[in-house]
Structures are given as C-alpha cells and as structure tokens.
Amino acid sequence: MKNNIxxxxxxxxxxxxxxxxxxxxxxADDQTETADTTMEQGSDDKMSDDKMExxxxxxxxxxxxMEKDGDAMMEQDGDAMMEKDGExxxxxxxDGExxxxxxxxxxxxxxxxxxxxxxxxxSDANDGKVVLFFHAAWCPTCIAANADITxxxxxxxxxxxxxxxxxDTASALxxxxxxxxxxxxxxxxxxxxxxxxxxxxxxxxxxxRAI
Length: 211
Fold this sequence. Notes:
Number of domains: 2
Structural class: alpha/beta
CATH class of the largest domain: Alpha Beta
Order of helices and strands: HEEHEHEEH
Number of helices: 4
Strand content: 5-15%
CATH topology of the largest domain: Glutaredoxin
Helix content: 55-70%
CATH architecture of the largest domain: 3-Layer(aba) Sandwich
Radius of gyration: 59 Å
C-alpha cells in the first residue's frame, strides 16, 4: 500500500513536469514567433522608409533637372530674342541708311541748278543732265537768256545742271567743242564728252533740246 502511494506521487510529479515543460515550450515558441514577426515588420518598415527617402531624392533630382532645363531654355530663348532684336535693329539701321541715301538722291534730283562752270560738277551727268552755256557779257541775246534762266531757276528740271561758260576766256573749251559763236549750248556727259550742241534759245529751249 505504501509503495503504491509512492509511485502515485512520482507519477503525479512526472506528469506535472511534462505538462510544465510543454507549456513553457509553447510560450517560448510563441515568443520566438512574435520576435520574428516584429523583426519582419521592422525590416519592412525600414525598406519602406528607404524607398520613401529614395523617392524623395529622385523627386529632388527631378526638380533640380527641371529647374536647370528651365534656366537653360530661358537663357537660350533670351539669347535668341536678343539676337533677333539685334538683327532687327541692324536691319532697321540699314533701312534707315538706305532711305537717307535715297532721300539725298531725291533731293539732288529735285534741285535744278544754274552755276558758273565747274569741272567737278560734270559728274552731275551721272544721274542727270549737264548743259554748258557759252555766254558773252556783250552779247544781247546772251544777256536775255541769262536773265531768263536766272529769273526761272525754280523751273529748271530736277537733275539738270546748267553751267555758264565765259565765251571770251574759255578758249580750251571752245576749241574742244568747236564753239565759234556766242550763245551756244553744249550738252555733255560726266566725262565732258559732247552729246548735243545748238545755238540760241532761253530756258524753255534748253529743257526741250537736252536729251
């Protein structure tokens, strides 16, 4: 009887130890699983944070690149606009110079002239007409023609230059054009070559006879 009691106590102790071991083991497994889960979540959270940081860096890089591209485009556009403005201003300046030259030419053509002989003015024939008037102070018809031309200077056509030559002193010119009679008109070119010659007449005749 006593032995049975002893064995019963031993059995209870053994069974209790096994139960305690099993419970302890389950708790350890649960703690291990919980730790693994926590580590896994921590790893996932870290990866998520790294990804967000990487995305933020990429966003900053993209913003920087866009800003640089914008600056480059603005600079190029500014340079292009300045270049175009410069070309436009240069073109306007050239047009202004051309207009000024044209205006000068038009002014020169608008004004007819009656002057004493000046060899340099033979060049007026480049874009107009030059007529030499062989005048003698003692010649009545020469005096009348001179008075008529002088009184009607504003009626001398544009581009026409009439130059009065002293018949008594201009021997070389008389010989060159074969002038033997005062009140003679000789139209010449810019090199002084004779184009046409006639005797007599006043301003209207000069205008009608010149070619």
